């Protein structure tokens, strides 16, 4: 009876974790003119969510329940292990992407607040840094991520130029 109750709890957790994973994979809705700092904020938020979830999964209470079910050779653990692995991968991806995107942080200020001349001065270094991310990041080096990042950089450049023209 205890094993059945614990299996029910694990199945509820499994369903909740699956929901988090599904939601994290959905296309995100952003403003049409979102800048590159929005990309960093997205990954920071995702890193926080998945790190918290990992902390919960690794808590003594959860570990105790899982070890009891392992001793009972519960069938629910196969799904649990797959989800645990998926959460770990998602947390590692988010953490890694934040680390790489932070290398662009020094460009966000000049890109958002500088004149078009200042923006132009920073573009070669910015592009070089983006290329380094593409070449070295195990997760962020997809065309989807790069396209999203370049779109946000372009948006920021356009917004900066609009602001400059309207103030001039």
What distinguishing features does this structure have?
DYH5 protein; 168 residues; single chain
Topology:
Blueprint: H1 2-25, H2 36-57, H3 60-71, H4 76-101, H5 105-113, H6 116-136, H7 143-167
In short:
The chain has one domain (1-167). The protein has seven helices and no strands. The protein has helices at 2-25, 36-57, 60-71, 76-101, 105-113, 116-136, 143-167.
H-E string: HHHHHHH
Alpha plus pi helix count: 7
Counting DSSP E segments of at least 2 residues, the number of strands comes to 0
Shape: elongated
Number of individual domains: 1
Question: How confident is the prediction overall: mean pLDDT?
Answer: 92
- Give start-end ranges of low-pLDDT stretches: none
Biggest sheet layout? none
Class of secondary structure makeup: mainly alpha
Based on the structure, what is the oligomeric state of the protein chains? single chain
The helix fraction, in percent, is over 70%
Strand proportion, as a percent range, falls in under 5%
Q: Give the N-terminus to C-terminus distance in angstroms.
A: 75 Å
Taking all Cα atoms into account, the compactness measure Rg is 21 Å
């Amino acid at each position: 009876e205890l094993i059945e109750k614990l299996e029910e709890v694990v199945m509820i957790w499994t369903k909740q974790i699956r929901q988090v994973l599904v939601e994290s994979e959905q296309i995100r809705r952003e403003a049409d003119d979102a800048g590159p700092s929005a990309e960093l904020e997205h990954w920071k938020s995702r890193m926080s969510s998945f790190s918290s979830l990992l902390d919960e999964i690794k808590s003594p209470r959860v570990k105790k329940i899982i070890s009891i079910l392992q001793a009972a050779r519960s069938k629910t653990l196969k799904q649990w292990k797959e989800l645990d692995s998926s959460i770990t991968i998602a947390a590692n991806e988010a953490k890694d992407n934040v680390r790489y995107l932070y290398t662009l942080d020094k460009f966000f200020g000049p890109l958002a607040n500088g004149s078009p001349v200042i923006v132009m001065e920073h573009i070669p270094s910015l592009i070089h840094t983006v290329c380094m991310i593409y070449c070295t990041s195990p997760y962020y080096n997809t065309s989807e991520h790069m396209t999203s990042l370049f779109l946000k950089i372009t948006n920021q450049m356009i917004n900066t130029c609009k602001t400059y023209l309207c103030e001039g």
